[in-house]
Amino acid sequence: MAENLLKGKKGIIFGALNEMSIAWQVAEKAKEQGADLILTNAPIAMRMGEINTLAKKLDAPVIAADATRDDDLNALFEQSMTHFGGGVDFVLHSIGMSPNVRKGFPYTASNHDFYLKTLDISGLSLHRVLQAAYERDAINEWGSVVGLTYIAAQRVFPDYNDMADAKSLLESIARSFGYHYGVKKKVRVNTISQSPTMTTAGSGVKGFDKFVAYADAMSPLGNADASACADYCVSLFSDHTRYVTMQNLFHDGGFSLTGVSNAVMDKFSEE
User: Fold this and answer.
1) What 3-state class would DSSP assign to 88?
2) Domain 10-269 class?
């Protein structure tokens, strides 16, 4: 990738928990490309994770914010504008959690209080983030917001559970808010539908290792790893993608358009 794609740009990264996190790698790649950053996560995630290690490495402040709390998000953007002396140029939304998955409730026997929490954390939080920024004019003209999603928003993956519904909501919010933010400030909003990636959150899905192996066998290019996803995010933060908005962009080695692969068919021929 070309050097200094993000030189002079400022951004906020949500969701860096540990080195397994895609957000962690996005933060590292954005810094390598010249960006100045603020890192943020929910207070409970910050206690569980290693965000302060990353913050020290990248010389980036950490501002705690629960993305399901409007007051937290309002304070985050106000503090970021004070820190940077103005608006930011990009935001990564890498937030997802399902209590139903964590507690082992199947989709057909969901706890609906948990279900609503899944939607709030993993989907509605993008709207909260965008609204807080929109109301404060906190994202600069031609800025970029990227949310991470998965193809289960379009296809059935039984054990992905209520996260699939949350990702569908996330993608719809990106389209709808992308229109309004584009009209107001030329801010673009996109989602990246990433290959299954062995993150802390992903590994909580039942049978996830088999999930990863299947996708890899189905994809002509194989699974895209977290590092490649980080590179793709950086490209969407850069000025080279100024006219890309309201899109759900598949970053999955071709999985999304492959009906069947020889590698998968060969599995059915094994004796």
Assistant:
1) strand
2) alpha beta
